[in-house]
Specification:
This protein has helices at 4-11, 14-21, 158-161. By secondary structure, the chain is low in regular secondary structure. The protein has a single domain (1-158), classed as 3 Solenoid (Pectate Lyase C-like). The protein is globular and about 45 Å long.
Length: 178
């Protein structure tokens, strides 16, 4: 569940949000399940944010930074991601119907088991992006032979990731500072 104080800050506007984000630890940005439908989040710093199950349908996310964000099972239909950074983002089990990713950077993103019907990827950077289990034939602008993949390796399984931050699963500790 989204942290109400974090959600309130985001609703204060992108300029205020980005200023606040400069001094906040990454773990404090919990927006899981938040209703952000049709919100103007252009240029928002959502790097490493937890957005699992969030409602972002129709949201404007052009120029936003969503690197390593977890958007698992989020509703993203008709969201606009023009020139958005989504490097290493997790988009498994998402509804991306009609979403626009024109000229966005999806390097190493996992867009697995997602509904891509009518999604547009024209000019997007897709190096190493994994589309396993997604209906890539229903998307527009994906190069026929490119650097994106359809590979089951590394695909998160629902049974092990419900309600947890999957980006930290499997990290090895014991080094200096632990």
């Amino acid at each position: 569940m989204a942290d109400p104080s974090v959600l309130a800050r985001l609703r204060d506007g992108v300029a205020a949000w980005n200023a606040w984000r400069e001094g906040v630890e990454l773990a404090e940005v919990d927006l899981r399940g938040a209703d952000l439908r049709e919100l103007d989040l252009r240029g928002a710093d959502l790097w490493y944010a937890l957005l699992q199950g969030a409602r972002l349908d129709g949201a404007l996310l052009s120029g936003a930074i969503l690197d390593r964000a977890d958007l698992g099972r989020a509703e993203l239909s008709h969201a606009v991601f023009y020139r958005t950074r989504l490097r290493g983002a997790l988009l498994d089990g998402c509804r991306l119907r009609g979403a626009t990713f024109v000229e966005s950077d999806l390097t190493l993103a996992k867009i697995t088991e997602s509904d891509l019907t009518g999604a547009v990827f024209t000019g997007a950077t897709l190096d190493g992006a994994n589309f396993f289990g997604s209906n890539v034939d229903e998307a527009h602008g994906l190069p026929e032979a490119g650097r994106w993949i359809v590979d089951e390796d590394g695909v998160p399984r629902r049974a092990i990731h419900e309600g947890i931050d999957r980006r930290v699963v499997g990290r090895v500790s014991g080094g200096e500072g632990d």
